[in-house]
Q: What sequence folds into this?
């Protein structure tokens, strides 16, 4: 569709627009570039400023040191912990939410409204607000330093339930009618019709929830005291020495890059689904 | 809402809801009730028994200059983060919307900070601005400015605001761009034919039509600045210097976990619960309105 020239100033106007956007992109990307460069040089290059602005030749050395030895715990171990936590939270949230949304949309039963509100109230109450009592509950269950402790307290949230509810409300009634006429049980309808129809939505939400899970900071900070159970996002801060010693910047920066890589790749490579999930889940 | 076809089932709906209700009860309602309960007690100095004090914790809290100061800090911090992240995002979105080609290339370059954890964003900005190491602080020094956010309260605030806003720009950008692209082009063209220039069109047509998006983002950004920026503050300043960057959420953590003052921390949690409640109602009213467009 040709756009009207009146709206989009041609010629110099477009160039100004491009210049503005390139400036914006530079401001956005510069911090990442600095961190990447720092992860490829020697400690002495950083300790004697100014830091070089071109990548050095220590990439393999620094990443190798981070992954195999780290500082408190090897980074491969923290990556593993983060992966388990992020996937656990994602799969947990998706499964409990899709089931409860199915119940709320397709059934009428006593206390239905109460259940909906009980779930909905959690929509905006982040762990940050109730950390100490939640920590005590988790500690009471013996969940400190365990994957269950990292995952379960964080899967109670209404965002995904609300998202699926909104989607189920758009599914044509005729489909349910047809399933009922054919004598399909509710679960048959759910498995054979509703789940396949929700596939794109599930993937879109998967992207959002994976990033949410991967990026958790405060909760892992409280619940894991052993370095071997640290997640990578919280482990970076633990790599700084407490006193006046010089931090091992190249190894810390290599770890920082490794901490960003999985969620950034998910966003960049699944951009279309991600944008859709993000914008739809807020409706 | 149209009449929906309903399945019958007595126990099945409860079974379907059980997992979510269970998790919500154990990790949400019970802790929230516990916070309410603990907020009415003080522990003795040895932590052996606790004493019922009613609303004393709250009275103490609101007469504590440090707490009131952290309220002010949170408000200033949230206002700055919201203003800068939304302003910058709107500017970029307006530019990207003007493009005839290539907006998806810019989008890829602009959206990835969304994926970065606040704590990681904190480490990244701390590294750039660390006195003696950071690349930016070195250039500041060359320019004759002695930058030291570790000692200077204003600079510490500026740095946590910059890191928090930087991370949030991509989110705001996506919503502003979607909002701009949903505005009917015919409206804008009609105004253009009537001779309205770009900025006039922007302020009289585009910005008013964008107001649902703007309002939604306003609430989301305030919530982000209140609750999700703990990682940024913890990694960059740890609330310092002298509490200059101690927000309300950071103080719950600092008093409860570091200071072990459970009663006060619980009372602070209750105050935060009320604050979130208000924000949720504001947000929900907005959602309602949008659904019934």
A:
């Amino acid at each position: 569709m040709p756009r009207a020239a009146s709206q989009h100033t041609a010629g110099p106007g477009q160039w100004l627009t491009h210049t503005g956007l390139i400036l914006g992109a530079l401001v956005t990307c510069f911090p990442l570039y600095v961190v990447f460069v720092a992860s490829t040089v020697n400690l002495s290059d950083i300790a004697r400023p100014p830091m070089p602005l071109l990548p050095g030749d220590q990439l393999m050395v620094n990443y190798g040191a981070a992954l195999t030895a780290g500082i408190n715990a090897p980074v491969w171990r923290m990556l593993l912990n983060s992966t388990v936590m992020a996937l656990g939270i994602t799969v947990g949230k998706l499964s409990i939410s899709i089931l409860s949304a199915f119940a709320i949309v397709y059934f009428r039963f006593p206390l239905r409204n109460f259940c909906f509100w009980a779930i909905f109230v959690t929509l905006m109450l982040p762990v940050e607000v109730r950390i100490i009592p939640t920590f005590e509950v988790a500690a009471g269950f013996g969940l400190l330093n365990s994957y269950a402790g990292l995952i379960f307290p964080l899967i109670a949230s209404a965002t995904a339930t609300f998202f699926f509810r909104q989607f189920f409300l758009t599914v044509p009634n005729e489909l349910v009618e047809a399933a009922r006429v054919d004598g399909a049980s509710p679960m048959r309808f759910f498995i054979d019709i509703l789940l396949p129809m929700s596939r794109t939505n599930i993937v879109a939400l998967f992207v959002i929830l994976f990033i949410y899970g991967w990026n958790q900071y405060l909760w892992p900070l409280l619940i894991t005291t052993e370095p071997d159970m640290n997640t990578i996002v919280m482990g970076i801060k633990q790599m700084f020495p407490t006193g006046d010693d010089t931090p091992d910047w190249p190894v810390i920066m290599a770890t920082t890059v490794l901490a960003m890589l999985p969620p950034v790749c998910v966003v960049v490579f699944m951009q279309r689904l991600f944008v859709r999930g993000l914008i739809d889940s807020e409706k | 809402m149209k009449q929906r076809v309903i399945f019958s089932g007595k126990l099945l709906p409860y079974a379907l809801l059980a997992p979510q209700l269970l998790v919500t009860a154990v990790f949400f309602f019970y802790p929230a009730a516990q916070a309410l309960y603990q907020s009415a007690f003080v522990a003795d100095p040895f932590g052996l028994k606790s004493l019922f004090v009613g609303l004393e914790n709250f009275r103490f809290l609101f007469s504590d200059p440090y707490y009131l100061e952290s309220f002010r800090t949170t408000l200033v911090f949230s206002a700055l983060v919201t203003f800068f992240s939304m302003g910058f995002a709107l500017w970029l979105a307006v530019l990207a919307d003007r493009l005839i080609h290539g907006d998806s290339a810019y989008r890829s370059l602009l959206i990835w900070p969304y994926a970065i954890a606040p704590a990681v964003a904190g480490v990244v900005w701390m590294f750039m601005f660390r006195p003696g190491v950071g690349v930016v602080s070195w250039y500041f020094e060359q320019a004759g400015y002695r930058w030291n956010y570790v000692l200077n309260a204003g600079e510490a605030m500026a740095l946590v605001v910059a890191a928090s806003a930087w991370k949030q720009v991509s989110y705001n950008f996506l919503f502003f761009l979607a909002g701009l692209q949903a505005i009917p082009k015919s409206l804008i063209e009609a105004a253009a034919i009537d001779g309205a220039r770009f900025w006039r069109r922007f302020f009289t047509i585009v910005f008013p039509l964008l107001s649902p998006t703007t309002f939604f983002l306003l609430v989301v950004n305030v919530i982000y600045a209140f609750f999700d920026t703990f990682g940024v503050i913890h990694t960059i300043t740890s609330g310092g210097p002298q509490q200059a960057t101690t927000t309300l959420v950071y103080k719950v953590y600092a008093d409860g976990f570091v200071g072990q003052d459970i009663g006060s921390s619980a009372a602070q949690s209750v105050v935060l619960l009320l604050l979130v409640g208000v924000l949720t109602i504001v947000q929900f009213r907005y959602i309602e309105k949008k659904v019934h467009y």
